[in-house]
Amino acid sequence: MASWAVSRPAECTSDRRVREWAGGAEAGSPAGRAGTAAHAAVGQGAGPPPPRAHVARVVCGATLFAMLRLVETFFRHRMLLLAPMALVAIASLGWVLTQPPSYDASVRIWTQRQTLVPDPNGNPYLSPAQEQAAVLTELISTKYFCAKVGKRTALAGVARFHLEHASGGTRQKLLSLVGLGSSRGPVTDSQVDDLVFTTISASTLILPSGPEIIAITYRDTDPQMAATIAQAIADQFIDETLSNQRVQADAALTFYTGQLQQARSDAAAADKAIDDYIAANTAQRSANASPDARLSQLKHDDDAAHARLASVQDKLDQARLDRAALNQPGVDGIRVLDRAEPPSRASSTRKTIFTAVGVTVALVLLILVVGVLALTWVDSTIRRPEEVETVLDLRPVGSVPRVS
Amino acid sequence: MAAVNRDDERAPPKKDAGRPGRTAQGDGGEDVRIPRPMLDACRSASLLIGGPGLRRLGITSALREEGRTSIALAMAIVQREDYGRTVALVDMDLERPSHSRRHGVEPWPGLAELSRGLASAQNVLQKVSDGLFVVTAGVLTSSAARTMAELVRLDTLTELERHVDVVVADLPPLLGGGPGAAGARAFPELVLVIRAGVTPVARIKEATEDLHCSPHVLLNAAHTSLPHWLRRLVGP
Prior knowledge:
The complex is a heterodimer.
Chain A: H1 13-22, H2 37-41, H3 52-76, H4 78-98, E1 103-111, H5 128-140, H6 143-152, H7 155-165, H8 169-177, H9 189-203, E2 204-208, E3 213-220, H10 223-280, H11 293-325, E4 334-338, H12 349-378, H13 385-390, E5 395-401
Antiparallel strand pairs in A: 1-3, 1-4, 2-3
Chain B: E1 3-5, E2 21-25, E3 32-35, H1 36-49, E4 56-61, H2 68-83, E5 87-91, H3 99-103, H4 111-116, H5 121-124, E6 126-129, E7 132-135, H6 144-154, H7 156-161, E8 166-170, H8 180-184, E9 190-195, H9 201-208, E10 216-222, H10 228-234
Parallel strand pairs in B: 1-2, 4-8, 4-9, 5-7, 5-8, 9-10
Antiparallel strand pairs in B: 2-3, 6-7
């Protein structure tokens, strides 16, 4: 008998006999001595604690039983659990089969770092493609950009057609049947832009495929439309970038023009100051005149004014050159390498299958885990003899197998 | 299938090797079959409880329909066959007695008549097979609870113990408002039958919390849904 076993003066007589018969280990189990009024009467719980190894064994066994109970719950209710899983799988398969084919059209554009007005806060560790891809991604997420892309293509017209001929969905249909459906007015440009924005932002993928190359991929059920919109996105992005650079060049031109006028005025004022000083001090006209500090200062200022005038003039010339260069194609740092071509075959099957498989696996696991846990939690019965000890704290003497 | 009935009185019961189980049958009674797995389980349980040293054993359960009556009969058969003891199987489920019908014996005189002194112990012991007697509930003249209280107070079972080696009682369920808890007090050894996967734990705890002793639990209709390969993997 284990040393920590507690004697029970008032226990059932057979308990003592069983302990003698079993040699102590089984009869000394703490289970089976609590749970009834008799247990409380004999003051169980007193005595030294059980050995650590025994506690570890009990904990390990309890964990195994808990896991077995979960597994058994699955096998017991396998039809209940497998039925929704099968339904999910069938629904996913149906979804895959009913998906229309879609086509991916890609444009690859070349980018290089913008040096017209260098950004002192720019990250030097980002490649030009990464920077411009981030810019383009931001633009794609704006209604302004998407609406312009839509207007460049037939997408805006298609969107307007859909809005004009849309039935309004099941809810609108049901409301119309009972006379509660609201009459739809004419389609506004804002609604068209919203639909275009939703379509483009959801169907466009922008990835830097190299340090200086950006791949723009657009997906559509019409291959021609996919190619057109992908190309339009690239063109619109180039236009936006060029427009931005032109604005910067114009700003530089305006700035340097103002600076040039100021420099000219300063130079003219310096020249006039020297002339006035010499006119007032005629002795300074001779070549052998003694040095005059005031005149020297005036000459120094005049030189500085002319030097600044020359510098501003150079910058203005450069700004004019840059502005003129922006009117030439291909000098804005971005150009299209591969134009979008209508894809010859659908590219969405694999992705659709992957999506369906992922969703199916996630749902199946969710159903399995939640179902097993819920069914196990709901089941408050004793199913194994071991649970008589662990759950009821009573001593099992056997189990009768179910006879069918 | 061999039958432990009156026809077998002259011959000692044979070992049931290769047979599906045992049958206890009286005159005109139902063919009460005890499955062999149940007999085996009760055989092991009987050893753990006390085996040949038992004098009085009560079979109870938390609720009805847990297999209490079959377990009581199996325990009685084990006592008779394994230890050769004379057994009185007492139907103490006074509200819904069933043993007279099951074994085809007279419903009275029984325990109620014995407690009222209308019949002797020899009169109420009705033989169903060699060494196996059934004591029916008898005819109640008062409520089951009152009759049970009288049985316990007068220690009626002691009178039966003078004529048999062991008394195995089919007690009423502990819950349900019946006299189950009162009847259980008459037994130092209790076997609590729990139907696996059916009886809620809360009801079992409710049933056992006021018992005077810790009952021995016999899990009835235990069944695992684990496939064979997994059972082999995780062991018994």
